[in-house]
Input
Amino acid sequence: MVTESTGRGDPAETRRGQPAHTDDWVTRDAAVVWHGFTQMAAYGDNAPIIVDHAEGRELVDVDGRRYLDAISSLWVTTLGHGVAELDAALRRQLDRVAHSTMLGHGNRVVVELAEALAAVVPVDGAHFLFASDGASAVEQALKIAFQYWTNRGLEGRDRYLALGNAYHGDTVGGLSLGDGGFGTDVFDPLRFPVVRTPGYDDPGWADKAIATVERHAGELAAAVIEPLVQGAAGMLVTEPGELARFAAACRDAGVLLVADEVATGFGRTGRLFACEWSAIRPDLLCLGKGLTGGYLPMSVTAAASHVYDAFLGEDLGPRTFYHGHSYAGNALAAAVALEHLRLVTRPAVLANVTARAAQLSVALGDVVTPHPAVAAVRQRGLMAGIELAPPEPGLRWGRRVCAAAVARGVLLRPLGDVVVVMPPLTTTEDEIARIVSTLDEALTEVAAGPRP
Ligand SMILES: Cc1ncc(COP(=O)(O)O)c(C=O)c1O
Output
């Protein structure tokens, strides 16, 4: 059940000092805000929540209703909202400087962050090019991979291998690597062609991808993968050994491997990085989302030393990487990311992920998998996808199950007819139990309810 806030208690105020309620805020919101991946003509009809503040792992709306954030605010929140140490790190940095450009100059907290990241990322001799969103980190990796070959004097390395069902963000490069769906087909004319091989839903994906890498090696700038879990595809999972075989094939064929850990990075799979399960060391690694624990937009592309070295040359010469974003290496974000790295690498955090993931697996297996409304359950660590089995297409079960869960105070968001469960790494035993029982009720309600 949705419970009233025991926190601030005071409802949000309008600009005129009157108590404002969700409906008023939704009206004001729809009048001026354009929400991503949202049909705005229907926005208000889909019972959006308007967040006022957060406490721990719960969001509190403008009417004081509380929602357990079971999707980590679209997979970014790691330790919870309002983490005292992260708040303090942000405040400390505010007293120094909020932002200074990384183009040609440095900032001490960014240096400290890069040093700390270098010690933990699965990349040899990493140098870090910062950006703001996951898609930008991927875009940077694509351009670095392309210019790497140019700088080495090799021509014709201008294609990318990407997997079926892939998702790498919404910029044109990311979209091109992506396998469509998500309503983005309208952009097909903008997508550049990639060499596509099946994704993790094909048990033979690794063999097919290896054969493709060997066949196309001479024209590939890089192969791009989401290690272990294809998240946005609906949590499609593979075995670590398959990934290791594919990475070895890329190395043997001389094709750069880009690991997109925007979703899987920072503990979600039970290790700090998903690459660790397969003991792979990609040439380029993309991180985002959890980098700042969900506080501030920051992403980064880590390049192995042999990649980075190919860009060294005369000042202002053609080997230079002519690319950079205005807010890259934002000092506030860097300060939070540095403190977050210290917190997230405490053994207790990953131990909790392991324990809660095991609990989630058992609970989903007991309660959700046998549900007649469910076709399949997939999980790695605290990344889970529940694929629904609607009796016919077009019933929007994913949307309706999540709406039923939100009405019960658990925030879920579907990917089509796959319900994603991705609670923060610090989630508790009670919260996992609450998520699963709420899901059970929501599934029962939608399966029994009238068709829209
Ligand atoms: C694997 C992967 N790469 C890239 C992105 C894009 O990240 P952003 O939304 O921060 O641009 C996402 C987002 O879900 C992702 O899951």
Notes: The longest helix spans residues 347-368.
